[in-house]
Write a structure and sequence with these properties.
With 132 residues, the chain is an alpha/beta fold. It is 36% helix and 23% strand. It has one domain: Response regulator (Rossmann fold). InterPro entries: CheY-like_superfamily (IPR011006), Sig_transdc_resp-reg_receiver (IPR001789).
Amino acid sequence: MVKYKCELALLIDNNATDNYAHKLAIIESQLAREVKVVTSGKDAIDYLRHENNPVPQIILFDVLIPIVEGQVFLHEFASLSHPHKNEMKIVILTYHEHDTHVEKLLVNQEITCVESKPLTMDSFDRLGAIMC
């Protein structure tokens, strides 16, 4: 029987190619049994606000997500009254680790870590370690 680090990952990215590759890799690496993919920060917040939706244990979001960008997403996330919010790990995905968008977001206490895109097996090893 396969042992996954968590049941559900929420992947927020508007890049279809990255989403396809990352979804497969998240499952293959056994980071999560399922991956819910949304393409905007607004869709992610709407998903998290809906109490009947399964709760993601890890949220991976591209720093440049459309409609509701990263800073607004984190502000909205912080205001959620979700009973399991403190159990969710938030990971920023970026092509440029030293991007000014990333640096602005790192002051937010909701962030667990930053990973460079595309995700690699080393990335999944680190992400698996934070889920323990």
